[in-house]
């Protein structure tokens, strides 16, 4: 094709990753502020969709990175549906345990609506260390912070536990265990 024919065509490769990451970061920040102001986690979840979608598109095939980034998007969509339809389901009661070992972390169980953002935060934190690209790391940080905002809005007490879990995981990754 010649340049005249290519001019009207859109391609993901033609996007400037710095501009896109900056834009989705601003969108996520706006969503976080709206969510905190309205005390509704739905706003941040909707406003995380662009970052999570771009993460799934950008992440290169790796040992588990592509799957994890697509899984992030699926979890985010499911979390939005759980909140919209006000689904309540006690995972601790279902599994007969207070916690489960998932992706290298022992996660506390409770209402399913809190588990989704917790899993988002953990998986995005794992992606920070498993991806090589600076843009996929940047997107993972946006998703992790947005997930923590969601957790805080759903259950402020559980937020402290989630933050402790993530910080401990970060210390373990850097071998600063305490």
Task: Record the SSE blueprint.
Layout: H1 3-7, H2 17-38, H3 41-58, H4 65-84, H5 91-95, E1 99-102, E2 105-108, H6 112-130, H7 134-154, H8 156-173
Antiparallel strand pairs: 1-2
Helix pairs in contact: 2-3, 2-7, 3-4, 3-7, 4-6, 6-7, 6-8, 7-8
Describe the structure in brief.
The protein is mostly helical and 178 residues long.
Tally of separate helices:
8
Low-confidence stretches: none
Distance, first to last CA: 60 Å
**Major sheet summary line:** 2 strands, antiparallel
> Order of strands in the sheet with the most strands?
1-2
| Total beta-strand segments | 2
Helix content: over 70%
**Cα Rg:** 17 Å
List the helices and strands in order.
HHHHHEEHHH
How much strand content do the residues show? under 5%
- SS-based class: mainly alpha
Globally, the shape reads globular
Task: Give the integer mean of the pLDDT values.
Answer: 86
Defining traits:
single chain, 178 residues, mainly alpha, two-stranded antiparallel ribbon, 8 helices, 4% strand
């Amino acid at each position: 094709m010649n340049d005249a024919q290519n001019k009207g065509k859109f391609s993901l490769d033609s996007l400037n990753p710095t501009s896109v990451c900056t834009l989705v970061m601003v969108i996520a920040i706006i969503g976080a502020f709206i969510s905190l102001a309205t005390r509704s986690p739905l706003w941040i979840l909707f406003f995380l969709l662009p970052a999570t979608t771009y993460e799934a598109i950008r992440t290169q095939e790796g040992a588990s990175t592509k799957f994890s980034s697509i899984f992030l998007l699926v979890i985010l969509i499911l979390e939005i549906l759980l909140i919209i339809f006000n689904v309540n389901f006690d995972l601790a009661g279902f599994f007969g345990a207070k916690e489960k070992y998932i992706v290298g972390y022992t996660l506390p169980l409770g209402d399913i609506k809190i588990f989704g953002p917790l899993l988002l935060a953990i998986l995005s934190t794992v992606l920070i260390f498993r991806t090589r690209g600076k843009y996929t790391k940047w997107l993972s940080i946006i998703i992790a912070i947005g997930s923590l905002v969601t957790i805080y809005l759903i259950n402020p007490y559980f937020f402290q536990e989630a933050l402790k879990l993530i910080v401990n995981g970060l210390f373990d990754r850097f071998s600063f265990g305490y």
